[in-house]
């Protein structure tokens, strides 16, 4: 897992935790103190916990954050061990748009205070973890967030109560025996338990959490690293210049983040070992299931790799008697003796403090290190219990950025919006506009929205059409897998059709074995937009809100059920989707055809003409001109209009013209038998410029 | 002639039979050289093969030659084989080395010799032979210059059939030659194998052979190019024949009969007929449209103009296009299409053209061409440097300090949003006009750069203009997005609204316009509220109404002790409004009874309307709000005073209350010509009175041009209108505004690719089951590769030649037109 932005707070080595647990159990009788009530209890003052606290604070809610350590973000005080965060702190983008810049800021939390941007805390592109700690405590302090430090929640259980918001209260007990009664529980404890694989000899293995970070300790040694994630490579990176060689052993092949487009996979900044491996410098990568292995320590204190199978046969024998694979197979790859074996296998969620009654269970095989949640981040087992931050990554594991600060800062906001609607009747924030602003509203968001960009294919914008599609409501960053429940979650009506605006990579582009540099990878023409490979906006149109069934049984590989119509905005090298013909025009045509109307904009003069020659006006004239807000334009624009054939040339109007080469743009709209089609046909409009 | 010569050849065959051929029934006669020359007839073309010895190569050739004999006979060309093995050798037999040669004779004169390897199959034989015979009818060219020379030479004389084929001797070459055999005397055929020539003509996919028809005959002006029509179907003899037939047919036929009965050559050729439904009143325009459609559909369908008025059969009311297909069992379609492109679209989407894939044809619909006038004009103007420095650009850092430090007008726009960029130009014009004179600061925020400022100011759409004044909430500008109206708004905002008038003297000055002389040009009416000092509530209501109208109407308030002096002067009871119309120099008084803000606003707004206004682009919406039919006097220039008087007098007597009388100055509002053209088809003599009933039925009535505009005539006419005794000259179309063009249908494209993928996957699966025990991971990899390659093959504008190629496209795009 990506260490950089993962934010487990309870990152204490297992030992510490068990002590705390014992203490808590021991102290239990003291619970007699009256429980303190809070509407919202947040577990953990890591990035996700603080982010949630910020939103609760701004909304004026009754909340409390519980933090075991004396400071926020304590995970980062120790991890990553080598102190370099691999989350990008991009300080320059050439743009001033603050929202856009968040697309390239992977460390900041969301707030209204521009001083609380991470770029003010570090100049490094890959910042130091201490800066993160400093940032998080500033964030908590400056915003005055309510955090109870030095408070270890030792036990969480649930108490049925009909009067409670969710039919029950969550009862939290801290290490002093103080109980807290919470209407809603927000768990932002991250992943705190190191993953361990049980095999004979695993006791000889150094864990990532405790292994020395001083390269001197590895000089002239043969090192074996178990794992192939960023922590494994980060460890290798630190020592590979002084070791004899490093072998890296993992169950499956290495996944490169630039091939998978998943930031949790191996980042290029850590991949020095791949380089030395492929350039024949003694280091190497091997794949094998760790559970089949065993480690034998010989009389010189060196470690040998053998099979668990052999160990079982020679149970209780001296280590030198245990057969090694090379005894039969003299070119066995790992026949060399190792001085050190280091385990870097990532972390998992700490389920231990949660009572069974919470029914907080782990996910499927692929994501068993995470608690099982819905796409709304609410636990499947208990209503009112939400998982935030790194621990919530099961929703988009290996897909999007939900396990990292730059992703979960948005999912936390989505959870907060859901809570505001559920418990306080505050509908999902939205803006309402006349339909003629639809294309602009979408263009604006796909060009600047950071939530859509970071949490691609997880959070999507939703456009709800109003009756007759003359106006629409725009909702930002809705968890798209919850589309069927949109009305309850947002408190909005979706009775007249909707658009969903998502960002997607090409369907077959990402994967550990994919050649992401193949020569035809870039798509330039808008007609081929559906073949775009790089992240690009995709817009789904539904006449009716999809049902839960439809969402669940959507076609394989689709983020949403099959829509009534679909539009891809062609990928753009600069991620700047504002080209009038390349991006905006096809989008407008798509919207027009979905809504069955004409969404072009017109100058006041054209609207005047239509007003006197048609019984109905195009929406732009209705919503602008007729409300005395027509676009008058200037003489030079008019001139261009006449030249392009799109505007009436009043000088020649009404004059007879040669029939054969007359362009349709030359005759009046009334004379056009096909009114109210465009009075002006687009044909030949380019020809003029030749 | 054929049968006789045939029998002679027969005799020959029976005479010499030395070479053994794989001959079949329709055999080419085989002769000895001597016999052969004796059979040659003057003027008759013969293809002769002189055969030396047998080899597998020659036998294959002879097989092809035999097959070619029949089609060549159809063109009056005989085929013969001459056996050189017999003792009488001929010089055509050549030496043993070059044993394989064929000759074409006309009479006994050799025209050409062909190495037999150029005659590789039937198509090649027929193509080569015809090509040699028709060298006058078919001009072979290699450069664009050649083509232009021919084109220029034939202007005003003959039309040209120009074709590109990949090589001489291909099936498509044969098809062209066969067509040339039939039409060569009527049209000049031009042939090239040079791809460069084709490229210079059109951007079509040049991998395929092409045939263009050049209309040169009617081009009389030598500087004009000939109109070119591309044949869309593949080059087969039948297709070319059909295409040329349609080129010969009249471009547009006018019919009066039942569309289900009409027949033209198109139907016989299996092409649909498209009827454009017009009417006598708009004949000219309809005909132009129909001609335009005809050009678009040339070679694809026959286009006919059908005048509704002349028709006895009934066709649905809103129909403007009728399509009748050649297939017998298909129904005639009555369509109401909103755009010319849709005809083409409709026709092609349902036409059974073999190679047609729906989305491939979309490009032809020009859906990639900008049809939004604002977008296009702003784009065309993008390189002009605006004096942006005349307005202050605000940023996240400077915004708050600036708008709190001074009274400011702020334009919120987005650099990529065309409407706001168009308005930015007007905004800059305002800045130019106000330069150095205004106390109001003109500023702007580009929301593309400073998104948060805009969101914070509640700006979520563009453009928005807000006015920030110290101690007041920001006010959004809601007027026309143009220089004049915004200027007026800014100017009128210089004074507080309502203005507190301090003395009767000042009130008089205010009313006669002297107090704010410089503002009179912006507000033709000044409103003064008169209240006794104790009427606090009424004053409050009025003050609120005044601030609501701020920037649009000048309002003032007077409530000093001596207010009665004014109320008695204008004979009105308090509270009251005095309306001073500066243009007319009149002051009206309106008593205010139990009125609220909303009513006061309404009263003032209504009062600001004129009885007989000059209608302009800017003020039409205000008058349309009255929801009455418009009585418009169209005038080319200033209004006829007599007419004005007449109408004003009628209006005064309340005769015109059911309509909104107004006049339109074509000099000032030239777009009025477009209106007239829509009503009359052409520009009628002016001045002219028209009643337009926009709100019910869209009927347009014209005041009879032979009548003088007098009170009596006008009243009589209006009465007749009301009684429904007049028939409209035009009914305005009531259609909704539909999408001007279709969009890309990406879903279908994906479906098509997916089904193709499935189809491909089947054989692959079979293959895989054959190879037992192959690596488990492999199938996955394979399917991934297949999918990728599908993507690429589906890509219409493949970037095979790199993204740089893409840039060149639009440039070429431009000269693709006919």
From TrEMBL, chain A:
<comment type="similarity">
    <text>Belongs to the FOXRED2 family.</text>
</comment>
<dbReference type="GO" id="GO:0036503">
    <property type="term" value="P:ERAD pathway"/>
</dbReference>
<comment type="subunit">
    <text>Interacts with SEL1L. May interact with OS9 and DNAJC10. Interacts with TXNDC16.</text>
</comment>
<protein>
    <recommendedName>
        <fullName>FAD-dependent oxidoreductase domain-containing protein 2</fullName>
    </recommendedName>
</protein>
<comment type="function">
    <text>Probable flavoprotein which may function in endoplasmic reticulum associated degradation (ERAD). May bind non-native proteins in the endoplasmic reticulum and target them to the ubiquitination machinery for subsequent degradation.</text>
</comment>
<keyword id="KW-0256">Endoplasmic reticulum</keyword>
<feature type="signal peptide">
    <location>
        <begin position="1"/>
        <end position="32"/>
    </location>
</feature>
<dbReference type="InterPro" id="IPR050982">
    <property type="entry name" value="Auxin_biosynth/cation_transpt"/>
</dbReference>
<dbReference type="GO" id="GO:0004497">
    <property type="term" value="F:monooxygenase activity"/>
</dbReference>
<dbReference type="InterPro" id="IPR036188">
    <property type="entry name" value="FAD/NAD-bd_sf"/>
</dbReference>
<dbReference type="GO" id="GO:0050660">
    <property type="term" value="F:flavin adenine dinucleotide binding"/>
</dbReference>
<keyword id="KW-0325">Glycoprotein</keyword>
<keyword id="KW-0274">FAD</keyword>
<keyword id="KW-0560">Oxidoreductase</keyword>
<dbReference type="Pfam" id="PF13738">
    <property type="entry name" value="Pyr_redox_3"/>
</dbReference>
<feature type="region of interest" description="Disordered">
    <location>
        <begin position="653"/>
        <end position="690"/>
    </location>
</feature>
<keyword id="KW-0732">Signal</keyword>
<keyword id="KW-0285">Flavoprotein</keyword>
<dbReference type="GO" id="GO:0005788">
    <property type="term" value="C:endoplasmic reticulum lumen"/>
</dbReference>
Automatic annotation (TrEMBL), chain B:
<feature type="domain" description="TXNDC16 second thioredoxin-like">
    <location>
        <begin position="131"/>
        <end position="250"/>
    </location>
</feature>
<dbReference type="InterPro" id="IPR040090">
    <property type="entry name" value="TXNDC16"/>
</dbReference>
<feature type="domain" description="TXNDC16 N-terminal">
    <location>
        <begin position="29"/>
        <end position="130"/>
    </location>
</feature>
<dbReference type="Pfam" id="PF24508">
    <property type="entry name" value="TXNDC16_N"/>
</dbReference>
<dbReference type="Pfam" id="PF24509">
    <property type="entry name" value="TXNDC16_2nd"/>
</dbReference>
<dbReference type="InterPro" id="IPR057642">
    <property type="entry name" value="TXNDC16_2nd"/>
</dbReference>
<protein>
    <submittedName>
        <fullName>Thioredoxin domain-containing protein 16</fullName>
    </submittedName>
</protein>
<feature type="compositionally biased region" description="Basic and acidic residues">
    <location>
        <begin position="769"/>
        <end position="785"/>
    </location>
</feature>
<dbReference type="InterPro" id="IPR057639">
    <property type="entry name" value="TXNDC16_N"/>
</dbReference>
<feature type="compositionally biased region" description="Basic and acidic residues">
    <location>
        <begin position="803"/>
        <end position="818"/>
    </location>
</feature>
<dbReference type="Pfam" id="PF13848">
    <property type="entry name" value="Thioredoxin_6"/>
</dbReference>
<feature type="domain" description="TXNDC16 third thioredoxin-like">
    <location>
        <begin position="251"/>
        <end position="341"/>
    </location>
</feature>
<feature type="region of interest" description="Disordered">
    <location>
        <begin position="769"/>
        <end position="818"/>
    </location>
</feature>
<feature type="domain" description="Thioredoxin">
    <location>
        <begin position="392"/>
        <end position="491"/>
    </location>
</feature>
<feature type="signal peptide">
    <location>
        <begin position="1"/>
        <end position="25"/>
    </location>
</feature>
<dbReference type="InterPro" id="IPR057645">
    <property type="entry name" value="TXNDC16_3rd"/>
</dbReference>
<dbReference type="Pfam" id="PF00085">
    <property type="entry name" value="Thioredoxin"/>
</dbReference>
<dbReference type="InterPro" id="IPR013766">
    <property type="entry name" value="Thioredoxin_domain"/>
</dbReference>
<dbReference type="Pfam" id="PF24510">
    <property type="entry name" value="TXNDC16_3rd"/>
</dbReference>
<dbReference type="InterPro" id="IPR036249">
    <property type="entry name" value="Thioredoxin-like_sf"/>
</dbReference>
<keyword id="KW-0732">Signal</keyword>
């Amino acid at each position: 897992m990506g260490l950089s932005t993962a934010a487990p707070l309870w990152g204490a080595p297992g030992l510490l935790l068990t002590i705390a647990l014992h203490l808590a159990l021991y102290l239990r009788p003291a619970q007699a103190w009256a429980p303190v009530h809070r509407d919202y209890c947040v577990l953990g003052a890591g990035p996700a916990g603080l982010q949630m606290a910020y939103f609760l604070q701004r909304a004026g809610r009754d909340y409390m954050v519980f933090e075991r350590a004396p400071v926020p973000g304590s995970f980062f005080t120790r991890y990553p061990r080598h102190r370099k965060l691999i989350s990008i702190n991009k300080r320059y983008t050439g743009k001033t748009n603050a929202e856009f810049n968040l697309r390239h800021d992977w460390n900041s939390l969301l707030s209204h205070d521009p001083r609380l941007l991470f770029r003010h805390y570090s100049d490094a592109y890959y910042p130091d973890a201490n800066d993160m700690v400093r940032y998080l405590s500033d964030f908590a302090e400056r915003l005055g967030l309510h955090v109870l430090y030095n408070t270890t929640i030792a036990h969480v259980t649930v108490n049925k109560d009909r009067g409670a918001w969710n039919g029950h209260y969550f009862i939290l007990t801290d290490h002093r025996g103080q109980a807290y009664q919470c209407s809603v529980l927000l768990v932002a404890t991250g992943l705190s338990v190191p993953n361990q694989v049980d095999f004979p000899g695993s006791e000889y293995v150094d864990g990532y959490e405790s292994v020395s970070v001083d390269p001197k300790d590895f000089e002239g040694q043969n090192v074996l690293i178990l794992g192939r994630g960023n922590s494994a490579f980060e460890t290798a990176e630190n020592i590979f210049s002084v070791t004899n060689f490093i072998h890296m052993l993992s169950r499956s092949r290495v996944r490169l983040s630039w091939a998978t487009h998943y930031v949790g996979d191996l980042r290029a900044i850590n991949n020095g070992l791949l380089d030395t491996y492929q350039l024949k410098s003694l280091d190497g990568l091997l794949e094998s299931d760790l559970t089949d292995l065993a480690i034998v320590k010989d009389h010189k204190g060196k470690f040998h790799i053998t099979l668990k199978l052999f160990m079982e046969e020679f149970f209780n024998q001296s280590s030198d008697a245990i057969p090694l694979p090379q005894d039969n197979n003299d070119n066995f790859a790992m026949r060399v003796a190792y001085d050190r074996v280091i385990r870097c296998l990532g972390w998992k969620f700490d389920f231990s403090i949660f009572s069974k009654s919470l029914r907080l269970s782990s996910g499927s095989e692929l994501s068993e290190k995470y608690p099982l949640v819905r796409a709304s981040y609410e636990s499947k087992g208990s209503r009112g219990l939400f998982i935030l931050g790194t621990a919530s990554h099961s929703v988009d594991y290996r897909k999007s950025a939900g396990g990292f600060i730059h992703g979960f800062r948005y999912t936390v906001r989505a959870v907060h919006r859901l809570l505001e609607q559920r418990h306080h009747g505050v509908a999902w924030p939205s803006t309402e506009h006349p339909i003629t602003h639809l294309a602009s509203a979408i263009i604006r968001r796909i060009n600047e929205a950071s939530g859509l960009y970071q949490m691609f294919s997880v959070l999507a914008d939703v456009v709800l059409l109003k009756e007759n599609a003359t106006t629409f409501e725009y909702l930002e960053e809705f968890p798209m897998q919850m589309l069927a429940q949109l009305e309850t979650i947002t408190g909005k009506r979706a009775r007249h059709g909707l658009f969903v605006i998502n960002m997607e990579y090409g369907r077959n582009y990402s994967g550990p074995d994919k050649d992401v540099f193949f020569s035809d990878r870039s798509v330039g023409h808008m007609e081929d937009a559906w073949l775009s490979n790089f992240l690009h906006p995709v817009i789904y149109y539904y006449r009716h809100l999809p049902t839960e069934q439809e969402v669940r049984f959507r076609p394989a590989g689709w983020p949403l059920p099959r829509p009534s119509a679909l539009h891809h905005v062609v990928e753009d090298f600069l991620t700047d989707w504002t080209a009038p013909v390349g991006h905006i025009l096809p989008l407008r045509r798509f919207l027009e055809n979905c809504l069955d109307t004409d969404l072009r904009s017109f100058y006041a003069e054209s609207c005047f003409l239509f007003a006197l020659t048609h019984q109905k006006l195009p929406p732009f004239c209705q919503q602008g001109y007729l409300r005395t807000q027509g676009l008058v334009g200037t003489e030079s624009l008019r001139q261009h209009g006449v030249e392009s054939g799109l505007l009436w040339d009043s000088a020649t109007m009404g004059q007879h013209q040669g029939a054969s080469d007359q362009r349709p743009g030359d005759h009046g709209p009334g004379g056009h038998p096909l009114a109210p089609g465009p009075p002006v046909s687009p044909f030949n409009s380019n020809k003029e410029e030749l | 002639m054929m049968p006789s010569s045939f029998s002679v050849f027969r005799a020959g065959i029976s005479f010499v039979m030395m070479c053994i051929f794989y001959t079949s029934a329709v055999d080419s006669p085989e002769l000895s050289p001597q016999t052969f020359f004796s059979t040659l007839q003057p003027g008759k073309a013969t293809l002769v093969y002189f055969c030396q010895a047998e080899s597998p190569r020659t036998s294959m050739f002879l097989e092809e030659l035999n097959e070619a004999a029949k089609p060549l006979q159809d063109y009056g060309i005989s085929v013969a084989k001459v056996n050189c093995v017999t003792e009488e050798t001929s010089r055509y037999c050549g030496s043993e080395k070059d044993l394989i040669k064929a000759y074409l004779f006309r009479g006994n004169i050799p025209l050409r010799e062909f190495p037999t390897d150029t005659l590789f199959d039937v198509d090649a034989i027929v193509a080569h032979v015809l090509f040699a015979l028709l060298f006058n009818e078919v001009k072979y060219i290699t450069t664009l210059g050649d083509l232009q020379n021919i084109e220029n030479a034939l202007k005003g004389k003959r039309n040209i059939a120009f074709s590109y084929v990949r090589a001489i001797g291909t099936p498509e070459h044969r098809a062209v030659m066969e067509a040339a055999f039939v039409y060569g005397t009527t049209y000049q055929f031009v042939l090239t194998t040079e791809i460069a020539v084709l490229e210079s003509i059109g951007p079509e996919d040049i991998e395929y052979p092409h045939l263009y028809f050049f209309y040169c005959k009617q081009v009389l002006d030598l500087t004009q190019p000939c109109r070119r029509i591309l044949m869309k179907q593949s080059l087969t003899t039948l297709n070319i024949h059909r295409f040329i037939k349609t080129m010969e047919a009249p471009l547009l036929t006018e019919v009066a009969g039942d569309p289900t009965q009409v027949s033209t050559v198109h139907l016989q050729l299996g092409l649909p007929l498209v009827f454009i439904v017009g009417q006598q009143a708009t004949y000219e325009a309809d005909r132009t449209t129909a001609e335009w459609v005809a050009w678009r559909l040339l070679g694809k369908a026959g286009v006919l103009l059908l005048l509704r008025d002349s028709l006895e059969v009934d066709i649905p009311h809103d129909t403007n296009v009728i399509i009748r297909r050649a297939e017998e069992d298909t129904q005639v379609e009555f369509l109401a299409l909103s755009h010319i492109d849709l005809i083409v679209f409709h026709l092609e989407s349902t036409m059974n053209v073999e190679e047609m894939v729906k989305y491939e044809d979309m490009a032809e619909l020009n859906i990639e061409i900008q049809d939004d006038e604002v977008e296009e004009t702003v784009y065309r103007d993008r390189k002009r440097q605006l004096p942006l420095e005349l307005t202050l650009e605000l940023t996240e850092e400077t915004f708050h300090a600036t708008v709190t430090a001074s009274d400011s007008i702020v334009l919120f726009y987005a650099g990529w949003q065309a409407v706001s960029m168009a308005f930015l130009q007007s905004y800059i014009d305002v800045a130019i006009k106000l330069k150095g004179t205004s106390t109001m600061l003109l500023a702007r925020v580009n929301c593309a750069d400073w998104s948060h400022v805009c969101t914070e100011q509640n700006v979520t759409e563009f453009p928005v203009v807000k006015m920030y004044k110290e101690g007041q909430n920001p006010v959004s500008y809601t007027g026309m997005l143009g220089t004049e109206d915004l200027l007026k708004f800014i100017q009128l905002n210089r004074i507080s609204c309502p203005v507190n008038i301090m003395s009767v003297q000042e009130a008089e000055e205010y009313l006669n316009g002297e107090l704010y002389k410089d503002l009179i040009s912006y507000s033709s009416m000044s409103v003064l509220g008169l209240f006794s000092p104790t009427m606090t509530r009424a004053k409050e209501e009025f003050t609120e109404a005044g601030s609501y109208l701020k920037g649009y109407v000048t309002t003032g308030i007077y409530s000093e002790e001596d207010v009665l002096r004014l109320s008695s002067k204008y004979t009105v009871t308090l509270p009251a409004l005095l309306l001073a119309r500066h243009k007319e120099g009149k002051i009206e008084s309106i008593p205010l009874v139990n009125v609220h803000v909303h009513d006061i606003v309404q009263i003032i707004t209504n009062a600001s309307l004129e009885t007989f206004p000059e209608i302009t682009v800017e003020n039409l919406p205000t008058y349309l709000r009255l929801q009455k039919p418009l009585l418009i006097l169209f005038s080319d220039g200033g209004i006829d005073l007599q007419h004005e008087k007449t109408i004003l007098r009628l209006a005064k007597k309340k005769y015109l209350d059911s309509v909104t009388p107004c006049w339109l100055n074509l000099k000032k509002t030239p777009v009025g010509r477009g209106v007239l053209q829509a009503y009359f088809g052409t520009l009628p003599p002016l001045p002219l009175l028209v009643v337009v009933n926009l709100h019910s039925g869209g009927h347009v009535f014209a005041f009879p041009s032979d009548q003088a505009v007098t009170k009596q005539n006008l009243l009589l006419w209006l009465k007749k209108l009301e009684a429904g005794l007049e028939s409209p000259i035009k009914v305005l179309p009531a259609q909704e505004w539909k999408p001007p063009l279709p969009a890309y249908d990406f879903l279908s494209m994906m479906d098509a690719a997916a089904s193709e993928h499935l189809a491909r996957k089947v054989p692959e699966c079979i293959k895989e089951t054959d190879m037992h025990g192959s690596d488990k991971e492999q199938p996955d990899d394979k399917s991934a590769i297949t999918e990728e390659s599908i993507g690429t093959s589906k890509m219409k504008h493949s970037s095979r030649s790199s993204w740089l190629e893409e840039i060149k496209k639009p440039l070429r795009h431009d000269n693709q037109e006919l």
